[in-house]
Amino acid sequence: MYKMIIIDDEYLVRIGIEKTIAWKDYDIQIVGTASNGLVGYNLVMKEKPDIVISDIRMPLLSGVEMIKKLSESDFDGEIIVLSGYKDFEYAIETFKSGIFSYILKPIDNAEFISVVLNAIEKLKEKRKDKMLKSTLSNSLPAMQNNYINSLLSFVDTISGDIIKDELERLGIDLPQSGSIFYMRAESNDTFSFSDGEKALLQIFVELEKVGIKFMKFSLPSYSVVFLYTLNKDLVVSAAMKGFSAFEKSSCTIFTASVICYHSIEEIPAVYHDCVKLVDKKLLLGFNTVEAKLDCKVSSRHYAAIMNLYKVISTDYAKPITVSYVADKMGVSESYLMHLLQASLGKTFNEILTGYRISLAKRLLKDGKYRINEISDMVGYADAKYFSRVFNKIVGVNPSDYDS
Question: How far from 298 is each of 260, 271, 326, 333, CA to CA, in Å?
């Protein structure tokens, strides 16, 4: 859906444009209105609309002045100017700043709709040309990476047809619906490109075992993978197994995220959500995959989950129980158990044990401590019991983990 902003100091003009035309029928959404050029300019900078409708004579900042400022700010949309007959010569000045067209008042709705739709067609061509020009000087692999980078960094609404045309032109066979997998080192101090490639290679081995096709793109400072599946739980499981294998050869810590998308148009927004998930990693200190919770999980439940992880990350070495954590969180034990099962599909013991064993693997890799010391450090008073739990989860004894 294309975004449009109306800027005019006449209330009746603004309300008339907004309310007398069924803009949704034309795939257009009014995202804001303003009564003067200054407020209008700030609104455009915030909302990044595709179309701006602007009067010429307005208080604080005239239409001509505002349009010049937008031009200097590299505004990417199209501008349509409204003017009366007496302002026609004045309106001509705006063409120097690159406006698409002008409409004389009083406004004829049929003419107005036609001009707006023509502006959208021009905008589509302009954006398509911009994407094409950014790739012409590169080889095909570089062109493909550049386009994906451009697509993922896009913040405005972009037509699925434009994306599909460009993908076809560059020979990129992205799944029409699938998942995005984003991975980043937790700390740049220990990150190396080779570590990232090694971690991904292990993950790809696990993905291939369960028959999931994927496409990887190496972009500046990170990697993004498109997966031909909507089963995010299967992806998370494969990624965690890949991380487990990778941990035996490196101390670099990665955080990944995976979110499903159901149409090509959703890709930029879903990618940005993946980045946010990595930014808001719940537990620091070991490789993990963050997956977007279902929309049925309320903000209150999500806050409780974050609080749970906070308690575990600080008190994991203590003999903590569900009752202990629930009391610290200020919730009932039954609520906490239901929350975990309904939202994460895990029990409290599974989450606590997973965290403890992940930390134990880091300590074993470090090589500074004996097994009985590590057992005590991660919350197991009995080293033999710790070894049994470790073997059950990791598949080898602690003494053989780093051999």
Answer: 19, 22, 19, 19
Q: What's the chain's average pLDDT?
A: 83
- Spatial strand order of the sheet with 101-104 comes to 28-34, 2-7, 51-55, 78-83, 101-104
Identify the bridge partners of residue 29 per DSSP, sorted by sequence position.
3
Q: Is residue 35 within 8 Å of residue 54, measured between CB atoms? A: no
Residue 255's contacts (CB-CB under 8 Å, 6 or more residues apart) are: 183, 184, 185, 186, 278, 281, 287, 288, 289, 290
What is the chain's alpha carbon radius of gyration, rounded to the nearest angstrom? 28
Per-residue pLDDT band for 28 (boundaries 50, 70, 90) equals very high
Estimate to the nearest angstrom the gap between the alpha carbon of 150 and the chain centroid. Answer: 14
Identity of the residue numbered 88? F
Q: Residue type at 158? A: I
pLDDT the model gives residue 72? 81
pLDDT digits (tens, 9 = 90+) for 232-251: 889 998 998 898 888 777 77
Burial of 1 (0-12, 13-18, 19+ CB in 10 A): middle
Do residues 256 and 204 touch, judged by C-beta distance below 8 A? no
Name the residue with higher pLDDT: 283 or 80.
80
d(CA 108, CA 21): 11
* Closest to 182 in 3D by CA, of 233, 216, 209: 216
Domains, the chain: 2-129 (3.40.50.2300), 138-292 (3.30.70.270), 352-400 (1.10.10.60)
Q: Where does 5-58 have alpha helices with state H?
A: 11-19, 37-47
CB burial readout 75-107, b (16+ within 10 A) else e: bebbbbbbbeeebeebbebbeebebbebbeeeb
- pLDDT (mean) for 132-157: 75
